[in-house]
Amino acid sequence: MNNCCARGLVLCVSEHGESDKIVTFYSPELGKATGIAKGAKRSKKRFVNKLEEFSLLRILYNPPKRDGLHFLREAELEDAFLSLRNTYPRYVAATFIGELILRFTREHDPDPNIFSLLLWGVQSLEKGRDPLETCALFHLRILGAAGYQPVLDCCGFCGETVRAGQNYGLHTGGALACGKCRGTIQGGSTAITVQTLRFLHHAQRVELVNLERLRLSHKNIEESLEILHKYTLHLLQHEIHSWQQIKALQNSSK
């Protein structure tokens, strides 16, 4: 069997049998991938304290012969991101980010840009950036990376450019609606201020390395999370499991 090596950030881990673990991770070389770590629960060297959620690893593995699990032989820890598991708000935010990766990526479809975005998200949380702000920016960018970027600079129904002093709403289908069009379209829309629209539109276009400089007000964060959640609910047709914990964080920060 061929020995291969890849970087990967662990998204979820589950026990399998008496001594094994099933690990799902995202890798710039493999995309979203799942592997089995034989004897991981008894390991004192190969996997000890390494197969944890949000850990960044260098993984030695054997690929599956066909569709199946990768065979994880050994893991080297690059960064444990310990505060993401030890600090509750960061844990909730990291779980939300991980769930979005699981929802919007496919098995064995690598995208180095998505990996860079994921790494930006966990590193931002580790550095102490506001967890809700990080979630809002990550959510916006993963939608774009997955091909579902909402158009936020003009009305999706009449084409009018966003202007100050106007009322806008994001339609459940992802199209922006101006004040005139909101009353004529079927389906609901969630109100959003021009300030939030302009900020999000800028955040869509800025280079990832410069995303760290952007800062949102509490109102911008609340509006952004709400409209992106409703848009994602429309796309996926089912709820994001960690959304209720995000809402609880919002309520506790008011």
How would you sum up this structure, described in words?
α2 packs parallel to α4 (131-145) and α6 packs across α7 (218-236). The chain has helices at 83-86, 88-104, 112-126, 131-145, 179-182, 194-205, 218-236, 243-253, and strands at residues 4-16, 20-27, 31-37, 56-62, 70-79, 168-171, 176-178, 189-192. Helices cover 38% and strands 22% of the residues. The strands form 2 sheets. It has a 5-stranded mixed β-barrel with strand order 1-2-3-5-4. Strands 7-6-8 form a 3-stranded antiparallel beta sheet. It is built from 8 helices and 8 strands, in the order βββββααααββαβααα. The longest helix is centred in the last third of the chain and has 19 residues, at 218-236. It is α+β, with helices and mostly antiparallel strands.
Draw up the topology in text.
Blueprint: E1 4-16, E2 20-27, E3 31-37, E4 56-62, E5 70-79, H1 83-86, H2 88-104, H3 112-126, H4 131-145, E6 168-171, E7 176-178, H5 179-182, E8 189-192, H6 194-205, H7 218-236, H8 243-253
Parallel strand pairs: 3-5
Antiparallel strand pairs: 1-2, 1-4, 2-3, 4-5, 6-7, 6-8
Helix pairs in contact: 2-3, 2-4, 2-8, 3-4, 4-7, 6-7
